[in-house]
Design brief:
The complex is a heterodimer of chains A (about 210) and B (about 200). Chain A is an all-alpha fold and about 210 residues long. Chain A has ten helices and no strands. The chains are: A mainly alpha (about 210), B mainly alpha (about 200).
Chain lengths: ~210, ~200
């Protein structure tokens, strides 16, 4: 694993551990369980890199760290409840993470498939659709958690509608940014840096070309 | 090329979509007015892009797209005679209608742009576009409720139950679509639907 992603993950882990300590002291079960899940999510990219599945570029790892940090910070400081724009900020950053991951997945698929081609100008549409769709999935997840576990993730109809609206805007911004970025670089250069040959071979073997 | 009777049926069904659009505007329900409008636009788009009026979406496709409008018009007519369509029937009509608009969008993109996609990618994208419609439903109707004082969405839980059930319905439809295209052939299905296959 490269040094920079490891350092980023380590730094955010220390911050999240600090927040976990505070939440445990305050016996805030929702906050500390969220921070534990955040720590788990934070270490998925290094684990995938260590297993040789994919090496995410460090800006994406940084973005993942920032989104998890902002979410936990909002819970520890209660800014989710006191600052009206905090929720929109976290939705915006998380939308950017989703856009980055979707773009990477799409580029890898395009690089290794003969039947899928998405020109860079059409990335605006596909990234937008993916970001909004994942936002709707997230709202369903929040509603399910509130209904079954008794959390208070969804506050009101206004909150839900504005969260979705935030991600409509995020999807549009991310889509334009991705299309602009891809119009200035080659697909081969980008995908080669990800070192996904092993993962692609696995998918081909198990999903697309099942053994006889 | 489709026969005159089939093309006539498509245009006749399009008039139902126009009637549905007018009704939703009168009822001040902006999302469903937008769905009807998008249904009209996407049904006519292949004909416009190919400059061939006969390339309007086939009647069965337009019928499925028009289901929410037909349901809405029927409920309006039948309510005067004390007959009420169940909520479940409305929901199924809405889900199928919006899913078919999503499918038409993806087929038009595949047929008339340089985007190329295989069956799983097409089905997955259709499902995602459907989810965008659900998101738009929440945003548009909520904003209009605030602006006009209407009550198209009554509460957060009512909205989320609708979104959750619609998503489950869309998963079922996506699996059925995937199975159907797998049995036939994506290019011939697309040619039949939007009048143009890849490479035509």
């Amino acid at each position: 694993m490269k040094r920079t992603p490891f350092l980023i993950t380590g730094a955010f882990s220390l911050i999240l551990l600090g927040m976990l300590y505070i939440s445990l002291n305050e016996a805030d079960s929702y906050a500390y369980s969220t921070e534990l899940v955040s720590l788990f999510l934070l270490w998925i990219p290094p684990f995938l890199s260590w297993r040789g599945v994919v090496e995410l570029p460090w800006p994406i790892i940084l973005l993942i760290g920032v989104s998890l940090f902002l979410h936990s910070l909002g819970l520890v400081t209660l800014w989710y409840y006191s600052t009206f724009w905090w929720d929109k900020l976290t939705h915006f950053v998380t939308g950017m993470v989703v856009a980055a991951l979707i773009t990477m997945a799409l580029l890898i698929i395009m690089q290794h498939s003969r039947t899928i081609t998405v020109p860079s100008k059409w990335m605006v549409f596909f990234v937008f659709v993916a970001v909004v769709a994942f936002e709707v999935f997230w709202e369903i997840f929040e509603f399910t958690m509130d209904s079954t576990v008794g959390t208070n993730m969804q506050h009101s109809l206004e909150d839900t509608a504005n969260d979705i609206l935030t991600n409509f805007i995020t999807g549009l911004i991310a889509g334009v940014a991705v299309a602009y970025y891809l119009s200035r670089c080659t697909l081969d250069d980008f995908v080669e840096g990800l070192k996904v040959e092993r993962a692609v071979a696995w998918f081909r073997r198990h999903l697309f070309e099942p053994p006889a | 090329m489709r026969g005159g009777l089939q093309v006539g049926a498509s245009y006749a069904l399009l008039s139902l979509l126009v009637a549905g659009f007018v009704q939703e505007v009168v009822r001040q329900d902006p999302f469903w007015a937008l769905v009807a409008l998008m249904g009209i636009a996407i049904a006519l788009l292949p004909a416009v892009l190919s400059r061939e009026p006969r390339n309007v979406l086939p009647w069965w496709f337009v019928l499925l797209i028009a289901l929410p409008s037909i349901g809405s018009l029927l409920s309006n007519l039948l309510s005067d005679h004390y007959v009420r369509l169940t909520d479940a029937a409305f929901w199924i009509a809405d889900i199928i209608g919006v899913f078919m608009i999503s499918l038409a969008v993806m087929l038009v993109i595949r047929g008339y742009s340089s985007v190329r996609m295989n069956r799983p990618f097409l089905v997955g994208s259709t499902f995602m576009v459907f989810e965008v419609f659900l998101g738009a439903y929440g945003v548009i109707d909520y904003q209009f409720d605030q602006l006009l004082g209407t009550h198209n969405i009554t509460s957060n839980s009512a909205f989320m139950v609708y979104v959750t059930i619609s998503t489950i319905g869309a998963v079922v439809l996506a699996l059925m679509l995937n199975y159907y295209i797998r049995l036939s052939d994506l290019d011939s299905f697309q040619r039949d639907a939007v009048g143009r296959g890849v490479g035509d």
